[in-house]
Each structure stands twice: as structure tokens, then as C-alpha cells.
Amino acid sequence: MTILEAARQLGAAIQEDERFIRYAKARLANDNDENLQKAIGEFNLIRMELDRLMSEENHDDEKIRENNEKLRELYSQIMSGDSMVEYNNAKAELDHMLNDVNSVIMQCCDGADPATVEPEHAACTGSCESCGGCH
Predict the structure, then answer these.
(1) pTM
(2) How far is CA 122 from the centre of its chain?
(3) What is each CA distance from 99 to 12, 87, 89, 129, in whole angstroms?
């Protein structure tokens, strides 16, 4: 078996995993959620308008403040919706699995025994801002 054949088998196994299936369903649900897509479209329009306002030589600080507020409210609405919460949770689980897979592969590339190597988990600081991925 070649490396690419093994990678294809790994890819197929990932697509059969419950974490991938949950993520794929959540992504599709978001894609099909008309209200969510409308809110995302509106968010993007407001962001473009905000960029335009900020690039003006004599920008209107009040309009910029209003657009910033609209943007924050819309972002909060988008991110707190049930389908987006499910998507983010499912994506976090999939990312965790992929981080484990990458950890094993990288350790094997450093000479670790493929039969016994375990994923390495970075120490959690409790702050998502400094995080390279959930453990």
C-alpha cells in the first residue's frame, strides 16, 4: 500500500466517523437555514459598509459607531442561533479528532512507534485566546 492509498483509507474512515457525520449534518443544516443565511448576508453587507465608511477621508464617527453596533448585534444573533451552536460544537469535536490524527502522524514522522504512539495534548491554559485547538 502506498502512502496516498493509506491517506485515502484514513479519509474514508474519517468520513464514516460519527464526529464527521455530525459536522457534515450541521454544516448542511446551516447552509439550508434561510434565516441564518439571510443574517450572514446582512452581516457581510454591514461589514462592507463599515469598511467603506472607515476608508473615507472624513469619516462619520456616528455612522461608524452605529454600524459597529449593528455588526455586534448581528454577530451575536448569528452565533447564538441553535444551528450555529450545533455547528460550532460539531466542528470543535471534528477538529479535536483531526488534531489527534495529526499528532500521531507527526510523532511517527519523528520516529515514534506507530503501534503504540498516543496523541499529544497541549496543556490547556483555560483561555481559548491562547489555544491551538481543544484537547
Answers:
(1) 0.78
(2) 19
(3) 17, 18, 15, 17
42 membership: H or E segment, kind and range: helix 34-55
**Residue 107 burial (CB < 10 Å; 0-12/13-18/19+)?**
middle
Question: Where do runs of H (alpha helix) occur along the chain?
Answer: 3-16, 18-32, 34-55, 61-80, 82-109
Rg of the chain over Cα atoms, rounded to whole angstroms, equals 21
Report the pLDDT averaged over residues 8-13: 98
Confidence of residue 30 (pLDDT cuts 50, 70, 90): very high
- Helices 82-109 and 3-16, interaxial angle, to 10°? 150
Torsion angles phi and psi, residue 3, rounded to 5: -60, -45
How far does the chain reach from its first CA to its final CA, in angstroms? 31
- Location of C-alpha cell 511517527: 108
51-65 per-residue burial string, b: 16 or more CB within 10 A, e: under 16: eebeeeeeeeeeeee
